[in-house]
Design goal:
Layout lengths: L11 H60 L6 H70 L2 H14 L2 H7 L3 H6 L3 H14 L7
Length: 205
C-alpha cells in the first residue's frame, strides 16, 4: 500500500481507467487550445491590417508635413501651397489614429474570442475530471489512514459488510458478520482489504 500522495489508484483496472481519462483530458484540452490559437491568429490578421494602416498613414503624414514645410519657402505662394499639404497631413494622421484603434480593438478581441471559444469545452471536461480526481484522492487518503490502525481497519471491515457484494464477503468468510463481531483478525483484514480495493488501494498481506 504505497503512493499515498499520488491521486492514482494502485489497483490495475482503476489505474488504467485513470490514465486513459488523463490522456483523453489532455488531448481534448490540446485540441481546443489549438482551436483557440487559430481563432486568435485569424482575428489578429485584422489587427495587423490596422498596424499597416497606422504605419503607412504616419509615413504619408510625415511626408506631407515635410512637403508643407518646403512649400513655405516658395516665394509669394508658399503659404497657399503649404496649407493644403498640412491639411492632408492632418487627415493622414486621423487615418493613422483609426488604424491604431483598429489594431488595439482587434488585438483585444482576438484574445476574448480565443478564450470564449476554447474555455467552455475545456472547462466542461476538465472540471468534472478534476472533481472526480480530488474526490478519489480524499477517499484513498482516508482509506489508507484508517487501514494503518486496528480500529480503522475494523471500520473499513464494517463498511465492507455494508457495501460490498455478498459473493465477495463470502469469499472472505462463510460468516463475515460473525467473524467481524468476534474480531477475527484474518477476516477483519480480508474485509478491510475489500473496502481498500473499492477505494482503489491494494496492500500486501
Amino acid at each position: 500500500m504505497t503512493s499515498r500522495y499520488l491521486p492514482y489508484a494502485t489497483t490495475p483496472a482503476r489505474l488504467l481507467a485513470q490514465l486513459v481519462s488523463d490522456v483523453v483530458v489532455i488531448a481534448w484540452t490540446a485540441v481546443w487550445v489549438l482551436v483557440g490559437m487559430a481563432v486568435h491568429a485569424a482575428v489578429s490578421t485584422i489587427a495587423e491590417v490596422g498596424r499597416q494602416v497606422q504605419d503607412g498613414a504616419n509615413g504619408v503624414a510625415g511626408n506631407l508635413n515635410s512637403a508643407g514645410d518646403s512649400a513655405d519657402n516658395v516665394p509669394l505662394v508658399g503659404d497657399s501651397l503649404s496649407k493644403p499639404l498640412r491639411a492632408a497631413s492632418e487627415a493622414a494622421l486621423d487615418i493613422a489614429g483609426a488604424g491604431h484603434s483598429l489594431d488595439t480593438t482587434a488585438s483585444w478581441l482576438a484574445w476574448v474570442l480565443a478564450l470564449a471559444v476554447a474555455s467552455p469545452p475545456i472547462l466542461a471536461v476538465a472540471m468534472p475530471w478534476l472533481f472526480m480526481r480530488v474526490r478519489f484522492f480524499r477517499r484513498k487518503w482516508t482509506a489508507i489512514t484508517l487501514a494503518a490502525t486496528p480500529a480503522g481497519e475494523q471500520l473499513l471491515a464494517l463498511r465492507a459488510l455494508a457495501n460490498r457484494p455478498l459473493a465477495k464477503l463470502a469469499a472472505v468468510s462463510l460468516d463475515p458478520v460473525g467473524a467481524w463481531r468476534r474480531d477475527d483478525a484474518i477476516a477483519v483484514r480480508g474485509l478491510a482489504n475489500l473496502e481498500l480495493r473499492a477505494a482503489g488501494v491494494t496492500r500486501r498481506n
